[in-house]
Amino acid sequence: MKINRETKIGIIFIVAAGLLYWGYNFLKGKDVFIKERTFYARYYDVSGLSKSDPVFINGLRAGNVKSLYFEPDHSGRIMVELQITQDFPLPSNTIAKIVSTDLMGTKAITLHIGDTPNLLLDGDTMNTSIESTLQEQMEQTIGPLKHKAEELLSSVDEIIGNLQTILNSETSENIKSSLGHLEKSLVNVESVTGSLDSLLSQETSSIKRILDNAESITSNLRNNNEHLTSILTNFHEISDSLVAADMASTLRYANKSLEDFSFVMNKINNGEGSMGALMNNDTLYLEMEKSARDLNLLLEDIKANPGRYVKFSLF
Protein backbone atom coordinates (compact mmCIF):
# COMPACT_ATOMS: atom_id res chain seq x y z
CA MET A 1 0.00 0.00 0.00
CA LYS A 2 1.42 3.30 -1.04
CA ILE A 3 1.30 6.11 1.55
CA ASN A 4 0.52 9.41 0.03
CA ARG A 5 2.36 12.60 0.76
CA GLU A 6 -0.29 14.12 3.03
CA THR A 7 -0.26 11.07 5.28
CA LYS A 8 3.52 11.23 5.59
CA ILE A 9 3.34 14.92 6.45
CA GLY A 10 0.66 14.20 9.09
CA ILE A 11 2.71 11.40 10.65
CA ILE A 12 5.82 13.57 10.73
CA PHE A 13 3.81 16.41 12.31
CA ILE A 14 2.40 14.11 15.02
CA VAL A 15 5.84 12.70 15.83
CA ALA A 16 7.36 16.21 15.90
CA ALA A 17 4.58 17.46 18.19
CA GLY A 18 5.13 14.48 20.51
CA LEU A 19 8.87 15.11 20.59
CA LEU A 20 8.26 18.80 21.24
CA TYR A 21 5.88 17.99 24.10
CA TRP A 22 8.31 15.47 25.57
CA GLY A 23 11.28 17.85 25.18
CA TYR A 24 9.38 20.72 26.77
CA ASN A 25 8.42 18.64 29.79
CA PHE A 26 11.89 17.15 29.98
CA LEU A 27 13.40 20.63 30.16
CA LYS A 28 10.97 21.38 32.97
CA GLY A 29 12.16 18.25 34.77
CA LYS A 30 9.07 16.26 33.96
CA ASP A 31 9.24 12.86 32.32
CA VAL A 32 5.97 12.03 30.61
CA PHE A 33 6.83 8.32 30.50
CA ILE A 34 7.23 7.98 34.27
CA LYS A 35 4.36 7.77 36.74
CA GLU A 36 4.34 10.86 38.92
CA ARG A 37 3.02 11.54 42.42
CA THR A 38 2.13 14.98 43.72
CA PHE A 39 2.62 16.10 47.33
CA TYR A 40 2.30 19.46 49.01
CA ALA A 41 4.42 21.32 51.57
CA ARG A 42 3.39 24.45 53.45
CA TYR A 43 5.99 27.12 54.43
CA TYR A 44 5.92 30.61 55.91
CA ASP A 45 9.17 31.41 54.08
CA VAL A 46 10.60 29.48 51.12
CA SER A 47 14.02 31.25 51.35
CA GLY A 48 14.33 31.74 47.59
CA LEU A 49 13.01 28.34 46.49
CA SER A 50 11.75 28.48 42.91
CA LYS A 51 9.92 26.38 40.39
CA SER A 52 11.78 23.36 38.92
CA ASP A 53 14.23 23.23 41.86
CA PRO A 54 15.18 19.61 42.61
CA VAL A 55 13.75 17.34 45.31
CA PHE A 56 16.20 14.82 46.82
CA ILE A 57 15.79 11.61 48.80
CA ASN A 58 19.02 10.60 50.53
CA GLY A 59 20.99 12.67 48.00
CA LEU A 60 19.27 11.13 44.93
CA ARG A 61 17.10 13.38 42.80
CA ALA A 62 13.55 12.09 43.15
CA GLY A 63 11.55 14.91 41.61
CA ASN A 64 11.22 18.65 41.38
CA VAL A 65 9.22 21.66 42.55
CA LYS A 66 6.21 21.89 40.29
CA SER A 67 4.73 25.18 41.48
CA LEU A 68 4.61 27.70 44.34
CA TYR A 69 1.67 29.90 45.31
CA PHE A 70 0.18 31.75 48.26
CA GLU A 71 -2.67 30.11 50.08
CA PRO A 72 -6.04 31.74 49.34
CA ASP A 73 -6.75 32.43 53.04
CA HIS A 74 -4.38 35.46 52.94
CA SER A 75 -2.33 34.02 55.83
CA GLY A 76 0.92 34.63 53.95
CA ARG A 77 1.79 30.95 53.91
CA ILE A 78 3.20 29.51 50.70
CA MET A 79 2.09 26.19 49.30
CA VAL A 80 4.75 24.28 47.38
CA GLU A 81 3.67 21.53 45.01
CA LEU A 82 6.20 18.69 44.79
CA GLN A 83 6.32 16.33 41.84
CA ILE A 84 7.91 12.99 42.85
CA THR A 85 9.01 10.69 40.04
CA GLN A 86 10.72 7.99 42.10
CA ASP A 87 8.50 5.13 43.22
CA PHE A 88 9.71 5.29 46.82
CA PRO A 89 7.36 4.80 49.81
CA LEU A 90 7.11 7.94 51.94
CA PRO A 91 5.99 7.52 55.61
CA SER A 92 3.49 10.04 56.93
CA ASN A 93 6.08 11.72 59.21
CA THR A 94 8.46 12.47 56.33
CA ILE A 95 9.79 16.05 56.49
CA ALA A 96 10.31 18.26 53.43
CA LYS A 97 13.25 20.50 54.33
CA ILE A 98 14.42 23.46 52.25
CA VAL A 99 18.25 23.41 52.02
CA SER A 100 21.05 25.24 50.22
CA THR A 101 22.98 23.11 47.73
CA ASP A 102 25.96 25.45 47.28
CA LEU A 103 27.55 28.64 48.57
CA MET A 104 25.66 30.67 45.95
CA GLY A 105 22.40 29.95 47.73
CA THR A 106 20.84 27.54 45.22
CA LYS A 107 17.83 25.96 46.91
CA ALA A 108 16.43 22.46 46.88
CA ILE A 109 14.15 20.29 48.99
CA THR A 110 15.45 17.25 50.84
CA LEU A 111 12.98 14.64 52.04
CA HIS A 112 13.91 13.24 55.46
CA ILE A 113 12.21 9.85 55.47
CA GLY A 114 10.14 9.09 58.54
CA ASP A 115 9.73 5.82 60.39
CA THR A 116 5.97 5.27 60.77
CA PRO A 117 4.19 2.43 58.95
CA ASN A 118 1.55 4.83 57.59
CA LEU A 119 2.42 6.11 54.12
CA LEU A 120 1.67 9.39 52.39
CA LEU A 121 -0.85 9.18 49.57
CA ASP A 122 -0.84 11.14 46.35
CA GLY A 123 -2.00 14.70 47.15
CA ASP A 124 -1.12 14.62 50.89
CA THR A 125 0.67 17.48 52.68
CA MET A 126 4.08 16.84 54.26
CA ASN A 127 5.65 18.21 57.40
CA THR A 128 8.19 20.94 56.67
CA SER A 129 11.30 22.64 58.01
CA ILE A 130 13.89 25.13 56.75
CA GLU A 131 17.66 24.85 57.01
CA SER A 132 19.44 27.90 58.37
CA THR A 133 20.90 30.06 55.65
CA LEU A 134 24.62 30.57 55.32
CA GLN A 135 24.23 34.08 56.68
CA GLU A 136 22.28 32.82 59.69
CA GLN A 137 24.87 30.10 60.32
CA MET A 138 27.64 32.70 60.07
CA GLU A 139 25.77 34.96 62.49
CA GLN A 140 25.28 32.06 64.91
CA THR A 141 28.99 31.23 64.71
CA ILE A 142 30.45 34.72 64.55
CA GLY A 143 27.92 36.38 66.86
CA PRO A 144 29.42 34.98 70.11
CA LEU A 145 32.94 35.70 68.82
CA LYS A 146 31.91 39.26 68.04
CA HIS A 147 30.46 39.66 71.52
CA LYS A 148 33.64 38.30 73.12
CA ALA A 149 35.78 40.55 70.90
CA GLU A 150 33.75 43.57 71.98
CA GLU A 151 34.19 42.60 75.64
CA LEU A 152 37.92 42.11 75.07
CA LEU A 153 38.26 45.50 73.39
CA SER A 154 36.34 47.09 76.26
CA SER A 155 38.70 45.42 78.76
CA VAL A 156 41.75 46.54 76.77
CA ASP A 157 40.41 50.08 76.63
CA GLU A 158 39.85 50.02 80.41
CA ILE A 159 43.38 48.68 80.98
CA ILE A 160 44.85 51.39 78.76
CA GLY A 161 42.89 54.02 80.68
CA ASN A 162 44.19 52.64 83.99
CA LEU A 163 47.73 52.62 82.63
CA GLN A 164 47.38 56.23 81.53
CA THR A 165 46.14 57.11 85.01
CA ILE A 166 49.02 55.23 86.62
CA LEU A 167 51.70 56.59 84.31
CA ASN A 168 51.15 60.28 85.07
CA SER A 169 54.07 62.53 86.03
CA GLU A 170 53.75 62.03 89.79
CA THR A 171 53.34 58.28 89.50
CA SER A 172 56.25 58.09 87.06
CA GLU A 173 58.47 59.80 89.61
CA ASN A 174 57.27 57.39 92.29
CA ILE A 175 58.01 54.45 90.00
CA LYS A 176 61.49 55.83 89.27
CA SER A 177 62.08 56.30 93.00
CA SER A 178 60.83 52.77 93.71
CA LEU A 179 63.11 51.39 91.03
CA GLY A 180 66.02 53.30 92.57
CA HIS A 181 65.25 51.83 96.00
CA LEU A 182 64.89 48.41 94.42
CA GLU A 183 68.30 48.77 92.80
CA LYS A 184 69.83 49.75 96.16
CA SER A 185 68.10 46.80 97.80
CA LEU A 186 69.51 44.45 95.17
CA VAL A 187 72.98 45.89 95.78
CA ASN A 188 72.53 45.33 99.53
CA VAL A 189 71.31 41.80 98.92
CA GLU A 190 74.33 41.14 96.74
CA SER A 191 76.59 42.52 99.48
CA VAL A 192 74.87 40.39 102.14
CA THR A 193 75.16 37.36 99.89
CA GLY A 194 78.87 38.00 99.45
CA SER A 195 79.35 38.42 103.20
CA LEU A 196 77.38 35.24 103.87
CA ASP A 197 79.46 33.38 101.30
CA SER A 198 82.66 34.66 102.92
CA LEU A 199 81.38 33.73 106.38
CA LEU A 200 80.45 30.25 105.23
CA SER A 201 83.85 29.75 103.63
CA GLN A 202 85.56 30.87 106.87
CA GLU A 203 83.37 28.75 109.12
CA THR A 204 83.45 25.65 106.97
CA SER A 205 85.53 23.75 109.51
CA SER A 206 83.20 24.77 112.37
CA ILE A 207 80.16 23.74 110.39
CA LYS A 208 81.87 20.45 109.58
CA ARG A 209 82.54 19.84 113.29
CA ILE A 210 78.90 20.64 114.13
CA LEU A 211 77.70 18.22 111.47
CA ASP A 212 80.14 15.57 112.73
CA ASN A 213 78.85 16.07 116.28
CA ALA A 214 75.27 15.83 115.05
CA GLU A 215 76.14 12.64 113.18
CA SER A 216 77.83 11.28 116.33
CA ILE A 217 74.73 12.07 118.41
CA THR A 218 72.55 10.39 115.82
CA SER A 219 74.83 7.37 115.81
CA ASN A 220 74.74 7.15 119.63
CA LEU A 221 70.98 7.36 119.59
CA ARG A 222 70.85 4.62 117.00
CA ASN A 223 73.31 2.43 118.94
CA ASN A 224 71.41 2.96 122.21
CA ASN A 225 68.03 2.44 120.69
CA GLU A 226 67.39 -0.62 122.86
CA HIS A 227 68.29 1.27 126.07
CA LEU A 228 66.07 4.18 125.09
CA THR A 229 63.28 1.74 124.35
CA SER A 230 63.78 0.14 127.78
CA ILE A 231 63.72 3.54 129.50
CA LEU A 232 60.56 4.54 127.69
CA THR A 233 59.01 1.17 128.57
CA ASN A 234 59.87 1.70 132.26
CA PHE A 235 58.48 5.21 132.14
CA HIS A 236 55.33 3.83 130.54
CA GLU A 237 55.04 1.22 133.30
CA ILE A 238 55.52 3.89 135.97
CA SER A 239 52.87 6.07 134.38
CA ASP A 240 50.54 3.06 134.20
CA SER A 241 51.21 2.37 137.90
CA LEU A 242 50.43 5.97 138.75
CA VAL A 243 47.26 5.78 136.77
CA ALA A 244 46.31 2.49 138.44
CA ALA A 245 46.99 3.91 141.93
CA ASP A 246 44.21 5.64 143.83
CA MET A 247 45.71 9.08 143.31
CA ALA A 248 42.41 10.82 143.87
CA SER A 249 42.05 9.36 147.41
CA THR A 250 45.68 10.18 148.21
CA LEU A 251 45.26 13.75 147.06
CA ARG A 252 42.03 14.09 149.05
CA TYR A 253 43.79 12.76 152.17
CA ALA A 254 46.74 15.11 151.68
CA ASN A 255 44.35 18.00 151.17
CA LYS A 256 42.50 17.12 154.41
CA SER A 257 45.83 16.89 156.32
CA LEU A 258 46.81 20.33 155.05
CA GLU A 259 43.44 21.70 156.10
CA ASP A 260 43.88 20.22 159.64
CA PHE A 261 47.40 21.63 159.86
CA SER A 262 46.13 25.01 158.73
CA PHE A 263 43.38 24.82 161.37
CA VAL A 264 45.94 24.05 164.14
CA MET A 265 48.20 26.87 162.95
CA ASN A 266 45.28 29.28 162.98
CA LYS A 267 44.47 28.32 166.59
CA ILE A 268 48.12 28.77 167.57
CA ASN A 269 48.21 32.17 165.88
CA ASN A 270 45.01 33.13 167.67
CA GLY A 271 46.58 32.20 171.06
CA GLU A 272 44.31 29.24 171.70
CA GLY A 273 45.62 26.26 173.70
CA SER A 274 48.93 25.83 175.48
CA MET A 275 50.98 26.12 172.34
CA GLY A 276 49.07 29.24 171.36
CA ALA A 277 49.56 30.76 174.79
CA LEU A 278 53.24 29.86 174.69
CA MET A 279 53.64 31.39 171.24
CA ASN A 280 51.61 34.53 171.87
CA ASN A 281 51.81 35.25 175.68
CA ASP A 282 55.10 36.85 176.85
CA THR A 283 54.16 36.37 180.57
CA LEU A 284 54.16 32.59 180.27
CA TYR A 285 57.44 32.74 178.46
CA LEU A 286 58.96 35.03 181.13
CA GLU A 287 57.65 32.80 183.95
CA MET A 288 59.10 29.75 182.30
CA GLU A 289 62.39 31.59 181.83
CA LYS A 290 62.37 32.68 185.51
CA SER A 291 61.58 29.10 186.63
CA ALA A 292 64.40 27.79 184.51
CA ARG A 293 66.74 30.37 185.95
CA ASP A 294 65.71 29.52 189.56
CA LEU A 295 66.12 25.82 188.85
CA ASN A 296 69.55 26.50 187.49
CA LEU A 297 70.49 28.43 190.67
CA LEU A 298 69.15 25.59 192.82
CA LEU A 299 71.20 23.03 190.97
CA GLU A 300 74.31 25.16 191.32
CA ASP A 301 73.67 25.55 195.04
CA ILE A 302 73.13 21.79 195.44
CA LYS A 303 76.39 21.21 193.63
CA ALA A 304 78.20 23.75 195.86
CA ASN A 305 76.60 22.74 199.19
CA PRO A 306 75.43 19.17 198.91
CA GLY A 307 75.48 18.76 202.70
CA ARG A 308 72.80 21.30 203.04
CA TYR A 309 70.38 19.19 201.13
CA VAL A 310 71.59 15.60 201.69
CA LYS A 311 72.50 14.13 205.12
CA PHE A 312 74.37 10.82 205.53
CA SER A 313 74.33 8.76 208.71
CA LEU A 314 76.33 5.61 209.10
CA PHE A 315 74.78 4.62 212.44
Describe it for me?
This protein is α/β, with parallel strands linked by helices and 315 residues long. Among the domains are: 1-33; 34-131, Elongation Factor Tu (Ef-tu), domain 3, CATH 2.40.30; 135-166; 247-279, no CATH class. Helices cover 60% and strands 15% of the residues. It has a 7-stranded mixed beta barrel. The termini are far apart. 6% of the residues are buried. The model has no long low-confidence stretch (mean pLDDT 79).
Give a quick rundown of the structure.
With 315 residues, this protein is an alpha/beta fold. The protein has helices spanning 5-27, 134-166, 169-202, 204-223, 225-244, 247-269, 273-280, 282-304, 306-309, and strands at 37-43, 54-57, 60-70, 78-84, 95-100, 107-112, 125-130.
* Structural category: alpha/beta
Name the CATH class of the domain at 34-131: Mainly Beta
- Secondary-structure element order, as H and E? HEEEEEEEHHHHHHHH
How much beta, percentage-wise?
5-15%
Question: How many distinct helices?
Answer: 9
Biggest β-sheet: strands ordered side by side in the sheet: 1-4-3-2-6-5-7
The residue fraction in helices comes out at 55-70%
CATH topology of the domain at 34-131: Elongation Factor Tu (Ef-tu), domain 3
Major sheet attributes: 7 strands, mixed, barrel
The backbone outline, from C-alpha atoms, is: elongated
Total beta strand runs: 7
Q: From the alpha carbons, calculate the radius of gyration and give it in angstroms.
A: 63 Å
User: How far apart are the termini?
Assistant: 225 Å
Q: What number is the mean pLDDT?
A: 79
| Low-confidence runs | none
Q: What is the CATH-assigned architecture of the domain at 34-131?
A: Beta Barrel
